[in-house]
Design a protein that fits this description.
The protein is mainly alpha-helical. It has three domains: 2-49, no CATH class; 65-223, no CATH class; 296-373, no CATH class. It is built from 15 helices and two strands. Strands 1-2 form a two-stranded antiparallel ribbon. Strand 1 (31-39) and strand 2 (42-49) form a beta hairpin. Residues 292-375 form the Cytochrome c domain. It holds the Pfam family Urate_ox_N. This is Cysteine desulfurase.
């Protein structure tokens, strides 16, 4: 998250800067525009060369490690949490009964495939049209989201949508933007004229990155929201997040550079429509309650059998060292205290038990719902 903040911050800044550049008379050859900025008690005068200046300064700042560290630390977290504990977080037998190595193999292969398809689209004739390329990229991400939600657990699917987007963004920096910049620099040092296409390609990929930042942030924290990850239409929700996030980023970018809000008004109803559909889809379904009496003892027995493996003072689940969120479900008083949370997580969303490792039955969920409703 720390590396991501640094990366996204620089991405936001440079895209806003790029759009705010103004062409003024009397500029040096090769300068595409300049901007005056005020911050931190001083003024900054920034110029952008479309290829490169005639001479390079001794101290040239490269912005790359923010992107690299975000991806590396993110992938390490993916390994530690979702690969090493695949049975808990990545695999859901009710979705697809995968083995640990099958799930890991699909994960790695999908990230590589996503980058290959994305870069092929950018290099194809489709890449010459910004609108068509955006539509194709959206369709590609939606297809991956559909595939992930039909292969992995809800949490595993959403984190992989984020991992795919993050991989595309980091690979853009590592494999396109920085190499192209190095080629421009090398040509300049040799006294040759740099290829202007290299800068144009780098700008295209950088622009893609900034439009993907808000959706990838949402995916990074998605495992805290089972109403999204464990939804029957999770892949549709992923598409709505990508669409609304991209449109919101467009509104912010163009606002930052002084465009009139009247010219950006078309984004507002689209964003609101996407959010409205999201609200509709995530509405809790009507509870199916148990038709009959459920005693305190029976409700407690269900929770002790299905939930207390993790939610106990001394968890028996090998992957859990401390009860999540400090919630203990070993006594009737504790059951009553956390009844509202149990109703949301185990009865409504069915997000718990995690990956349903203890095999909670729908009838047991219905009985808990009935017991809670009558408290």
């Amino acid at each position: 998250m720390i590396a991501g903040i640094a990366w996204i911050g620089t991405s936001f800044y440079f895209v806003a800067l790029d759009f705010s550049l103004r062409k003024e008379p009397g500029m040096p050859p090769g300068v595409g525009g300049e901007a005056w900025e005020v911050h931190g008690g001083g003024f900054y005068h920034v110029r952008k060369y479309l290829t490169a200046p005639e001479t390079l300064p001794k101290d040239l700042i490269w912005f790359k490690w923010e992107a690299y560290l975000t991806w590396v630390t993110g992938f390490l977290l993916l390994v530690v949490l979702y690969y090493l504990q695949a049975d808990s977080y990545l695999i859901d037998p009710n979705v697809m009964p995968l083995t640990q190595w099958q799930a890991i193999g699909i994960s790695v292969a999908s990230l590589v495939l996503g980058w290959v398809l994305y870069t092929a689209l950018c290099k194809s004739p489709v890449g010459r049209s910004t609108g068509l390329l955006a539509a194709c990229l959206f369709a590609m991400l939606l297809a991956f989201a559909y595939g992930y939600t039909h292969l992995f657990s809800g949490r595993g699917a959403f984190i992989h949508i984020g991992a795919l987007i993050g991989t595309i963004m980091a690979a853009n920096v590592f494999m396109v933007i920085i190499p192209n910049q190095r080629k421009i620099t090398a040509a300049l040092l040799k006294g040759e004229k740099p290829d202007p296409r290299l800068g144009a390609i780098g700008k295209q990929r950088s622009l893609h990155n900034t439009y993907l930042t808000l959706p990838v942030l949402a995916m990074m924290v998605s495992n805290h929201f089972p109403m999204i990850t464990d939804n029957a239409h999770a892949w549709v929700l992923a598409g709505l997040i990508i669409l609304a996030g991209g449109l919101a980023r467009h509104f912010l970018v163009r606002t930052e550079v002084g465009d009139r809000h009247a010219d950006l008004a078309w984004t507002i109803p689209l964003i609101c429509t996407a959010l409205a559909f999201g609200l509709i889809i995530t509405q809790p379904s009507k509870l199916v309650l148990f038709q009959g009496e459920v005693s305190d003892a029976e409700a407690l027995s269900i929770v002790q059998t299905r939930c207390a493996a993790c939610h106990a003072e001394h968890p028996t689940d090998a992957t859990i060292k401390v009860a999540p969120k400090g919630v203990h479900l070993e006594t009737l008083d504790q059951l009553k205290r956390y009844a509202a949370q149990i109703e949301v997580q185990a009865v409504q969303n069915k997000a718990m038990p995690l990956a349903n490792r203890t095999g909670m039955l729908d009838e047991e969920r219905a009985k808990l719902g009935t017991w809670i409703a009558r408290q």
